[in-house]
Give the backbone structure.
Amino acid sequence: MHCPFCRNSDSRVIDSRTSDDGSAIRRRRQCPECQKRFTTIETASLMITKRSGVTEPFSRDKIVSGVRKACQGRPVTDADLALLAQQVEEALRATGAASIEAQDIGLAILEPLRNLDHVAFMRFASVYQAWDSLEDFEAAVKNLRG
């Protein structure tokens, strides 16, 4: 880690603490050259591989915006969506993989969304799983009731 003040390539960790939600580590550092202190935040990266082959960092905001469309007109709050995005991220990180396929994100969304709101689940699943017939919807409703 380079010192942001003098660009020295060495620094000493003075203090380490986990963030409130435990997803990051805050480290207080001191440069041995200029003696100035600075803070770094370390997080584990989770990369998403899209169908096109492009990779990008995981974003809870993308989960929320995608699911919000399925929840339009439903009694689902922003807090509910934030919790769903957190559950999805935790499930993906629990796999231990550093890179996740975009398809796997959709699968990880389905179960928490099903528990949150059945109608929103049906909307999301119909687009995500590309249902194209009434039989697909009937099978999903039968599965929800069972």
